[in-house]
């Protein structure tokens, strides 16, 4: 049985402008450049260059007073303490509709003008329409294309795989061995190791290349690949990697002792049981010290010298530039973060031509609708860029004020406990907005480049009753470990007692967590001769 029900529902939706602002706010400088280039390509109404003074188009568009106020003063919306994530835009909820461009056929006869069509078309009907007609910008809004887009990174001059394939071509192997060599090189991972079983690689050759090979044959070609540069490439484990590198060194007594240590006492070496190694190999103190020193200088990840398969090396591009001069901080955005964009004057001229036209037919209406969509899209994009700059500067300025002592001296122990909520309250914005700013952004200071996340840390209680930053505790912990006797490194229990003696109320498990975050091994593995 069918029935009709009425239901009242209250929901909130993000407008296209807000979605666009969110997307632009969370991307770093490198991706912002690509995003602007993409928008310039898809929107002919958007141009690079300084904005021109207001013209007749602005007068025609004066009906939307609220939107124009936001354009003239992008800071006005941000200054409203009641706003959260949506503070930078009008709160009008608009449904997103797909863009429809009506085709215009040259040979189509014009329909006879009715009474409604004969009336003059008011341009403000298009310019001040509350509905967003055909607003759908490429790359905006949630979607797989936006989330899956790669970060623009600097290309490398050549990959490790290309380098190895080039060396394979000069190795003098026959065609069959070359095929096996290419399969082996394709099995090398990012660290430079071949961790797959040779029998599995032989099976791959049989299925993919229709080439029946034996495991000894594959191993013979592997030994050739292991002679390629960089040294240690193609090893199946760390022990083999280190031995391959030592084999290329001049055979001296220290090299021979290092090879004996890796071949005969590798397990003791990984656990740093040096006394057992001395007793087993009958080495003097200076001999084992020199041999261990040589091993420690070897490269455990030979593939790290170049990315496999045409990868990319990422360079950090700071979003902010901070300088300190005569007690004053000068905070600016990276110039790449402040592009000069404007609405195309040619498109505004189209509106003037339409307004002065004596005959306004259906084709002209369609053209004006298309132009209106592109102009709205350009204006919203420019406004989103301005609001992004303003939000970034306000957030970073609050961080600088909060961590002033650190930015003056560069001393990690001066960092104060700071969480996202502290900055959100300072600038009267939502925590999610601050999180988007802090994500993947970096600032260049006189002491180096720091990610914004570096300045956020939890508090640790002290004997004085004040909270200390976890960064400060990590800094003190690192200092203690660096100053310890390497023959008798400090355990986590002793480190806990030393920190408690300095007034930091911290548990042993927290010491172990901070030590691991600092990439410092346990006491047994820090032992040196």
UniProtKB/TrEMBL annotation:
Domain RNA polymerase sigma factor 54 core-binding, first and last residues per copy: 154-347
Amino acid composition bias (Basic and acidic residues), ranges on this chain: 91-108
Acidic residues compositional bias, start-end: 47-76, 116-132
Domain spans labelled RNA polymerase sigma factor 54 DNA-binding: 369-527
Matching InterPro entries: RNA_pol_sigma_54 (IPR000394), RNA_pol_sigma_54_core-bd (IPR007046), RNA_pol_sigma_54_DNA-bd (IPR007634), RpoN_core-bd_sf (IPR038709)
Classification via Pfam families: Sigma54_AID, Sigma54_CBD, Sigma54_DBD
Family label: Belongs to the sigma-54 factor family.
Name used for this protein in its record: RNA polymerase factor sigma-54
Species for this entry: Hymenobacter terrestris
């Amino acid at each position: 049985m069918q029935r009709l029900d009425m239901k009242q529902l209250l929901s909130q939706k993000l407008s296209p402008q807000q979605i666009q602002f969110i997307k632009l706010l969370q991307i770093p400088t490198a991706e912002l450049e690509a995003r602007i280039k993409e928008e310039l390509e898809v929107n002919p109404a958007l141009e690079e260059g300084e904005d021109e003074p207001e013209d007749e188009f602005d007068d025609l568009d004066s009906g939307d007073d609220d939107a124009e106020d936001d354009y003239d003063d992008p800071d006005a919306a941000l200054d409203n303490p009641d706003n959260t994530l949506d503070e930078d835009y009008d709160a009008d909820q608009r449904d997103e509709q797909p863009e429809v461009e009506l085709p215009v056929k040259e040979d189509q006869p014009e329909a006879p003008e009715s009474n409604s069509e004969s009336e003059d078309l008011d341009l403000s009907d298009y310019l001040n329409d509350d509905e967003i007609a055909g607003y759908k910008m490429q790359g905006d809004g949630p979607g797989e294309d936006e989330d899956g887009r790669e970060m623009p990174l600097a290309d490398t001059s050549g990959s490790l795989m290309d380098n190895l394939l080039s060396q394979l071509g000069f190795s003098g192997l026959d065609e069959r061995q070359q095929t096996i060599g290419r399969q082996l090189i394709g099995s090398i991972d990012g660290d430079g190791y071949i961790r797959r079983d040779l029998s599995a690689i032989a099976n791959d050759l049989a299925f993919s290349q229709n080439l029946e090979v034996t495991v000894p044959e594959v191993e013979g070609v592997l030994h050739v690949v292991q002679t390629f540069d960089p040294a240690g490439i193609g090893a199946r484990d760390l022990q083999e990697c280190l031995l391959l590198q030592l084999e290329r060194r001049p055979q001296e007594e220290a090299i021979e002792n290092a090879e004996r240590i890796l071949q005969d006492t590798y397990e003791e070496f990984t656990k740093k049981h040096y006394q057992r190694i001395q007793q087993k190999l009958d080495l003097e103190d200076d001999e084992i010290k020199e041999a261990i020193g040589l091993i420690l200088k070897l490269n455990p990840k030979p593939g790290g010298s170049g990315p496999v398969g045409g990868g990319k090396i990422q360079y950090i591009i700071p979003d902010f530039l901070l300088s300190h001069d005569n007690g004053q901080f000068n905070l600016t955005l990276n110039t790449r973060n402040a592009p000069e964009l404007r609405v195309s004057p040619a498109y505004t001229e189209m509106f003037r031509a339409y307004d002065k036209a004596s005959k306004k037919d259906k084709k002209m209406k369609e053209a004006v609708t298309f132009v209106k969509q592109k102009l709205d899209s350009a204006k919203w994009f420019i406004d989103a860029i301005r609001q992004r700059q303003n939000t970034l500067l306000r957030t970073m300025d609050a961080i600088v004020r909060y961590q002033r002592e650190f930015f003056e001296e560069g001393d990690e122990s001066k960092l104060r406990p700071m969480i996202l909520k502290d900055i959100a309250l300072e600038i009267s914005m939502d925590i999610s907005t601050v999180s988007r700013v802090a994500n993947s952004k970096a600032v260049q200071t006189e002491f180096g480049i720091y990610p914004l996340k570096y300045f956020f840390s939890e508090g640790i209680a002290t004997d004085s009753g004040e909270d200390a930053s976890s960064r400060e505790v990590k800094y003190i912990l690192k200092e203690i470990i660096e100053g310890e006797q390497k023959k008798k490194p400090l355990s986590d229990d002793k480190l806990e007692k030393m920190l408690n003696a300095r007034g930091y109320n911290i548990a042993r498990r927290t010491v172990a967590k901070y030590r691991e975050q600092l990439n410092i091994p346990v006491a047994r593995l820090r032992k040196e001769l």
